[in-house]
Design goal:
Two copies of one chain form a homodimer.
Chain A lengths: L3 E6 L7 H14 L7 E4 L3 H5 L3 E3 L5 H6 L22 H13 L2 E8 L1 H16 L5 E6 L15 H22 L6 E6 L6 H6 L12 E3 L7 H15 L2 E6 L27 H13 L3 E5 L2 H5 L6 H19 L5 E7 L7 E7 L24 H7 L11 E2 L2 E2 L21
Main location (chains A, B): cytoplasm
Family (chains A, B): Belongs to the phosphofructokinase type A (PFKA) family. PPi-dependent PFK group II subfamily. Clade 'B2' sub-subfamily.
Subcellular location (chains A, B): Cytoplasm
């Protein structure tokens, strides 16, 4: 009897995580002689713990194909991190119990560093419990912070969004800076790593062109140097565009956004990094400002996804199934950049024990000497990742995004399991 | 000797105001037997007052054509409002002086209600000063608040952006609401009129679908009803998506964003409407939230402009020149919707004295009974305006937006003029 597969989405969703799901399901369907049904966890790994398994075989081939152009997590996701084996072995045993009950021999976990760790542990424990499961991690994170893989699916699209948003907003502010707003701040995601903010740097090619300042979590915030650079930009260019990573922080590690910054009245500033920076500039330099916080818009912007990103997201899903069918275990399909002047990549195999719990930050050589910009090396790295436009189909002026039926299979384990 | 033309961009720029500029310049060039050079005001009307006139004849036809897909105000804009004739007749006389010096017989002013008023006054004063100028106003405002015209160029694209952003962010939050964030707030532009926020309503077709709540400036904010609706949405749907116009206000007219709302610590809340609402929901209902402030991103998002909007923006620019050449004066090309089941429109002529200083708000029949949504009448009005995608060309993953040369003509009036 063919082994079935389990697929789950983990952590914050992206514009292209469903493209990976599409890659998994279409590839499994293409190998129906070797692999049975793909069950998807409803709301991620919680769906496995609660035995809420979506039967993807009931989804039409049109729906599965449309996942490739649909943002968000079609099967639901969660930030549930399994505890360590020592602290909660019962959770891992529950996973194996559910997998066994549904004859699941393949575990595809689509997420970031935490899920790579879970994936690894499931594989190890399943061996020791005598029900070996092929566990393959599928990389996904807008933060681009996974090791080994050259980049993470999800990042290219958010990078493209931020680069375009920076470029467009800059054209707006430059139109009116002579007599009006002189400061524009765009707050981006990236709590620990500055990859997303760095992408804003692609909007301009020279130091005169916007953005004039990028704030990275990797560079300690220096208020004096920052204000000086803002002032210089306004005096030289007439305006200043700032792309700021939400993770911008002081040397002591405190985030600017919640470090107790106060407004001119001595009140604690609430509401995020962008208004904090805006208030700082206004109070110290007096410039009129505007700010935007893209928040979920940036990671759900499938309407302007990077074609390279969509292709890679699909490819890692496809490769995950091929790896599993080839008997591989505890691995992750990684995107490897090939040498040469033209961007080219292929999928390689990364051992999960080298992926789990490792965060990849912006290398210092990607950040300009003054800490406020990106270098040519960063451009060379980033530019290919935002290449190409992969537009979704439209109907009546809006993207035709799909929804799954989401039918659950009947539970078989005869017990419920509390997820805390 | 052929009369020259003067064109200026006024007020907040849009994704398609340059398409109107393109319409003006290309149409003038097509009638080079009847109209001379088009001079453009550098930074709007200030450019006329300071005699900083951009010679558009030095821009290549490729550059002018590319304006059609370039956001922002290519010639620069300003929020400078001419005072009344009584208060500062000198400003109007200066305009006529500059126009006369450069043999300008046509004045095309591309903006909102204020600029329509200026346009009218220039026409009137030029008559009385014995140097009659054909003044034609070209409608532009993302706020969609001009009268007579069925809609304003610039609005359709921001409406499309907000509808898509709402749809995409909703797919994001629904993916994770079971175990994580339950509230998403998108703050939109619209200080006085709720047209832009209303467009967010196009993202969902039924009351169950997001957005669950829209806040309009036209409807007094009722905190109790709002919190009740938020709570109901979360309990029924699992989450709540809110699209809030920056102009949302209390019954007494105070804006929520700066009405002295305080956080749970009793501190004055800074940073705009979205964080104010987020804090309110968190403190009263305890739900985890995310919020986005699109700010300039929404009105500069040429990458996802409405094809109908681009076409209409070009058409009003073209019609303005045709009106002027037909001897019309003190008029504005208006977009008139034709009756029938299929959306169709044509350009008609609106007298400026009926346009100037009149604001068009959302009619009550466009807003649902509970004040938190849009009606079918609103959908019927809005949907055609976001139809079609007018993608800009791309290079290396980024839109190929153009920049003008911007060469100024030599001044002729032999005097400077102070603009305050």
């Amino acid at each position: 009897m063919l082994k079935n597969a389990f697929y789950a989405q983990s952590g914050g969703v992206t514009a292209v995580i469903n493209a990976s799901a599409c890659g998994v399901i279409e590839t499994a369907r293409a190998h129906s002689d070797k692999i049975g049904t793909v069950f998807a966890g409803k709301n991620g790994i919680i769906g496995a713990l609660k035995e809420e398994l979506i039967d993807t075989s009931l989804e039409s081939s049109e729906t599965i194909a449309a996942l490739k152009h649909t943002p968000g997590g079609a099967f639901g996701s969660c930030r549930y991190k399994l505890k360590s084996l020592q602290d909660n072995r019962a959770e891992y045993e529950r996973l194996i119990e559910v997998f066994k009950a549904h004859n699941i021999g393949y575990f595809f976990y689509n997420g970031g560093g935490d899920s790579a760790d879970t994936c690894l542990k499931v594989s190890e424990l399943s061996q020791s419990m005598g029900y070996p499961i092929h566990a393959v991690h599928i990389p996904k994170t807008v933060d681009n912070d996974l090791p080994i893989t050259d980049n993470c699916p999800g990042f290219g699209s958010v990078a493209k969004y931020i680069a375009i948003a920076t470029m467009e907003a800059s054209l707006d502010i430059v139109s009116m800076c002579a007599s009006s707003t002189k400061i524009f701040i765009l707050e981006t995601m990236g709590r620990h790593a500055g990859w997303i903010a760095a992408a804003g740097g692609l909007a301009g090619k020279t130091s005169e062109e916007p953005p004039h300042i990028i704030l990275f979590p990797e560079v300690a915030f220096n208020e004096e140097a920052f204000l000086d650079k803002v002032d210089t930009s306004v005096k030289q260019c007439g305006y200043c565009v700032i792309v700021a990573s939400e993770g911008a922080r002081y040397a002591n590690g405190d985030f600017l956004a919640d470090s107790g910054a106060t407004d001119v009245f001595g009140h604690k500033q609430l509401g995020g990094l962008a208004p904090t920076l805006a208030e700082l500039i206004k109070s110290k330099l007096g410039y009129k400002h505007h700010w935007a916080v893209a928040d979920y818009l940036q990671r759900s912007a499938r309407h302007i996804a990077s074609a390279v990103d969509v292709e890679q997201a699909y490819a890692v899903g496809k490769a995950a199934v091929e790896f599993a069918l080839a008997g591989k275990n505890s691995v992750m399909p990684a995107i490897t950049r090939l040498p040469g002047p033209e961007y080219a990549w292929h999928i390689t195999e990364a051992p999960l024990n080298q992926v789990a719990n490792v965060e990849k930050f912006m290398p210092r050589e990607f950040i300009s000497d003054d800490g406020f910009g990106i270098t040519q090396a960063a451009r060379d790295y980033l530019e290919p990742l935002i290449a190409g436009e992969s537009y979704p189909p439209y109907r009546n002026g809006l993207p035709s995004y799909t929804r799954i039926v989401g039918q659950l299979v009947a539970p078989k384990t005869q017990r419920s399991f509390d997820v805390n």
